[in-house]
Known about the structure:
It is built from 3 helices and no strands. By secondary structure, the protein is mainly α. Helix 1 packs across helix 2. It is elongated and about 110 Å long. The protein starts with about 55 loop residues before the first helix and ends in a 16-residue tail after the last helix. The model has no long low-confidence stretch (mean pLDDT about 80).
Amino acid sequence: MKATSKMMLISPTSTSLPLLNHKFPNFTPKRTLPHYAPFKIQSMAKETSETETTLTEKVAIIGGLVSNPVIGWSLYTLKTTGCGLPPGPGGSIGALEGVSYLAVVGIVAWSLYTKSKTGSGLPNGPFGLLGAVEGLSYLSLVAILVVFGVQFYQQGFIPGPVPVPGDQCFG
C-alpha cells in the first residue's frame, strides 16, 4: 500500500491582482504601508570607561589566584593520602592551606552577597581576573564538598585543621 501525502499551501491573497468590486468598478482602494516611527535604542548598562579597581578587588584577585591552586593541591593530597598538606617549615604550608580555604569561602560569600543585592555577581575586574577568580572559587567550593564527602565516606573522618598529638595525620 502506497501512502500519498498532499501539501496545501495557504498564503494571503495576492496584492497584485485587482480587486473585484461589482458595485464600483472604477474604484481602486488606496494602499498605504503602515507608518513606523523611528525608534531609539537606549542602553541601561553602565559605561565601561570606569577602570578603577578597588583595593578589595585587588586583594581578592591576588588571594584567589594563589588560593585556588593551593586548594587543588590540598584536595589532591587529601584524596591520595587521606591527609591534607603537611605542616611544612614552621607550619607555613599548613597555614597557607588554611588561609586558602578561608579566602575561597570569603570570595564565594562576597559573590553571593553581591548577587543578592545587585542581581549579578562580582564585576569582571581588570582583564576579567576577578570574574575568573569568582568562577574558580565556586568550582573549588564544589570540589571541596565532593572530596570531603568522599573522604568521610571512605575513611570515616575528615582531618582536623590543626595537627594534634595522636592524630592520624601529622600527629
